[in-house]
Amino acid sequence: MKRIQLLVFIVLTLATVTPAFAQDYFPDIPGYKTLACDLHTHTVFSDGMVWPTVRIDEARRERLDAIAISDHIEYQPHKADLPTNHNRPYEVAKQLAVEKNVLLIKATEITRDTPPGHYNALFLEDIDLLDTPKFMDVIEEANKQNAFVFWNHHAWKGEDRGKWSDLQTTLYEKKWLHGMEVANGGSYYPSAHKWCLEKNLTMLGNSDIHAPASDDPYTAEKHRSVTLVFAKERTVESITEALRAGRTAVWFENQVIGRQQYLKPLFDGCVTVAKAHYQKNSTLFFELTNKALIDVQLERTGKSGPSEITIPARSSVIVTAKLPNGKKTVNLSYRASNFLIAPEKGLPVEFSVTSH
Ligand SMILES: [Zn+2]
Ligand SMILES: [Zn+2]
Questions:
Q1: How far is Cα 60 from Cα 75, in angstroms, rounded to an integer?
Q2: Is the pLDDT of residue 254 over 80?
Q3: Which ligand has the minimum distance to the alpha carbon of residue 71?
Q4: Which domain holds residue 273?
Q5: Mean pLDDT value across the chain
């Protein structure tokens, strides 16, 4: 290959690859890109405080791969200044989204009394057709448009008003309900986490942001609640497929919440164990490194190693463990207490370290 051809080839190859913005926070998992997605946001077109393009600038600044602008259908306090036009927030924001490399999802929030509560519908074609009085008709129309529908902040008026009732069973049996918010803004809902596991619903975590976003850099503790979507590609189509397949986790405060089958590869991508760099008698010294923006908390479940280990975000710690008598390898069993595979249940993890 001539040098100029090689140069063209390299430039084209680079141009076709967009690493996920979420890489700033979490690694990819085998076979999938990890995408940071906020699938529940508001603008002035309902009760939010910003123009739709501002949500795109914020997403770019915060390294979110995708957002859904999901203004309320039934609640528009700025109606006197902005006439009802449910499709406009998406149209207003979409050109800037393309320019800023943020994936924008056309969406709405179906906003009824609680019960039945609030539901987001994503990937819609025409939101105007959802502006209809009967709740069941709206959900049916969303599904006619092939929307992905999830139940938002179900317990925001208390667990009793957010309980799973015949209505949810009907939606579920018709396959009209596909997920639930396990986290919304500053709230985590263990009951939603449990129902998602039992009923095989997709877990979501979103900001439900109304005010302008803070421009403070993200920390392990302080960041938007987002859905980590494990997608084949960094495209809206791939996000649709991943949501339907349930390939998500929720990044909420200093925790990730989800199914074991996704939290395990995510943990393995975040945390690496180095070979022992030093040995004193039967004690091994080794490093645990964490590349993600979460302070990984480990609690011992086995016999070896410290009872608790915290590996700060994007950092490493030196750990010591004693070799069992006459052995060259020590096996360490822990629970990652802030990788929640069920309410109050941390992910089991194992390491082994060998004498050098
Ligand atoms: Zn709501
Ligand atoms: Zn909302």
A1: 28
A2: yes
A3: 2
A4: 266-354
A5: 95
Same domain membership, residue 335 and residue 227: no
Pairing between β-strand 315-322 and β-strand 308-311 as defined by DSSP bridges: unpaired
CA of 41 to the centre of ligand 2 (A): 6
Residues 218 and 341 in one domain: no
What value does the mean pLDDT take over residues 244-249? Answer: 98
First to last CA, the chain: 45
Ligand 2 centroid to Cα of residue 224, in Å, is 14
Tell me the CA–centroid distance for residue 69 and ligand 2, in Å: 10
Ligand located closest to 70 CA: 2
Residue 125 φ then ψ, to 5°:
-100, -50
Find the mean pLDDT for residues 46-52.
98
CA–centroid distance, residue 231 to ligand 1 (Å):
26
CA of 71 to the centre of ligand 2 (A): 7
Whether residue 7 has pLDDT greater than 70: no
Number of domains in the chain: 2
Each residue's pLDDT tens digit, 183-223: 999 999 999 999 999 999 999 999 999 999 999 999 999 99
68/344 Cα distance (integer angstroms): 30
Are both 245 and 295 inside the same structural domain?
Answer: no
pLDDT at 6: 54
Count of beta carbons in the 10 Å neighbourhood of residue 211: 9
Nearest bound ligand to the CA of residue 41: 2
- Whether residue 64 is found in the same domain as residue 85: yes
Gap between the Cα atoms of 37 and 40, Å rounded:
9
Query: Which ligand sits closest to the CA of 119?
Result: 1
Report if residue 146 sits inside a domain. Answer: yes
Is pLDDT at 15 greater than 60 in this prediction?
Answer: no
C-alpha 153 – ligand 1 centre gap (Å): 7
Do 205 and 337 reside in the same domain of the chain? no
Distance 34 CA to ligand 2 centre (A): 24
Name the one residue in this structure whose structure tokens are 């914020």. Answer: 58
Same domain, residue pair 123 and 153: yes
* Residues 279 and 235 occupy one common structural domain: no
Centre of ligand 2 from the C-alpha of residue 152, in Å: 8
